[in-house]
Write a structure and sequence with these properties.
heterodimer, A: mainly beta, 2 domains, five-stranded antiparallel β-sheet, about 10% helix, B: three-stranded antiparallel β-sheet
Chain lengths: ~180, ~150
């Protein structure tokens, strides 16, 4: 063995999974709607929970879900994390915030980014609203929304997160 | 509820792992870069290629490297009629268990051949080296019939 050359200590061992994703009926309807700038979930006929993005069935009851329900682009932060480690091939530079958000009118969270905020001030129960891309850039994609940003509304108590009507938090307080 | 237009999109999910190989496999790969193939001597005297770190019977740490031949014998094989993208060759080839001269345990590698009928258990093969060796198993580009 040559002394001049470095000993091999490691190898690259990448795994690539290439596949073709076909959206099912529920996801395809959601994507057609978001291309028009509308967030659309589905309501379970049994427990009345609204799911977004819809999966075509209720995870709790097992019932098929068919009724389509438009939800708001205002949401409440259910949980969040401040990402400080760069992820390979991810164009977003840390630190940034990714959060579980429950849209008004929905009962389950989805993941999206929080921006235009002081990261250290972001908190559970905080009210946020979608910042949409320009309409001419809308596609069949959740990133038609660039991110959510804080809005000047009172925090939602933890026990109320995921239970707001589509009319929103202040609308709920007025009821 | 009407059926929406079907939406499809191609995706690639990549796990860009690097792996540290340790001193034993590291030695094997370093030797490959120098176009040598080494195995390791087990407690019962068998030569194992590629070398393993611990004895298969006693689990004791192994360290006695042994250079083995670059030719050997096919112990068993499977012919690949339609190579896939990740395969080492873009034409039909054989995956084979090859017992190199001086080794007691076969090693898996690919065998280039024109036809399945050219490959046989007991056939002699020899290593074909890549033009440029980097310290990876693909430094042996393939084996071909000797």
């Amino acid at each position: 063995m040559s002394e001049e050359q470095d000993v091999i200590t490691g190898i690259e061992a990448p795994v690539y999974l290439k596949y073709n994703f076909t959206a099912g009926a529920a996801a395809a309807r959601f994507l057609h709607q978001i291309k028009k700038g509308v967030l659309t979930g589905q309501r379970c006929p049994s427990c009345q929970q609204v799911y977004i993005p819809p999966r075509g069935s209720c995870a709790a009851c097992g019932c098929p879900t068919e009724e389509e329900v438009e939800v708001a682009d205002k949401a409440t932060i259910q949980s969040f994390t401040i990402v400080t480690i760069p992820i390979p091939n991810n164009p977003i530079q840390p630190p940034y915030i990714i959060a579980n958000l429950v849209a008004d009118g929905a009962n389950i969270s989805f993941l999206h980014l929080i921006s235009e905020c002081v990261n250290e001030d972001v908190h559970i129960g905080q009210r946020v609203q979608a910042l949409w891309k320009p309409e001419e850039e809308w596609d069949y994609a959740m990133d038609n929304i660039r991110y959510f940003r804080p809005i000047d509304e009172p925090d939602v108590p933890v026990e109320m997160i995921g239970k707001l009507p589509v009319t929103g938090w202040e609308g709920s307080a007025d009821d | 509820m009407s059926q929406p237009e079907v939406l499809q999109q191609s995706f690639e999910l990549g796990f860009t792992y690097t792996r540290s190989v340790g001193p034993v496999v590291g030695r094997f790969l370093t030797e490959l870069r120098n176009r040598n193939i080494v195995g390791i001597k087990a407690s019962d005297g068998r030569v194992v290629v590629p070398p393993m770190e611990y004895d298969p019977d006693t689990a004791e740490e192994l360290s006695e490297f042994v250079e083995v031949g670059q030719e050997g014998e096919i112990v068993s094989f499977a012919w690949v009629k339609e190579p896939r993208e990740a395969h080492p060759m873009d034409r039909p080839f054989a995956w084979a268990m090859i017992r190199l001269d001086g080794a007691d345990v076969p090693m898996i590698h690919c065998v280039a051949a024109n036809a399945e009928s050219d490959v046989a258990t007991g056939a002699r093969v020899k290593a074909v080296w890549a033009d440029e060796t980097i310290g990876f198993i693909t430094d042996i580009r393939c084996f071909e019939l000797a």
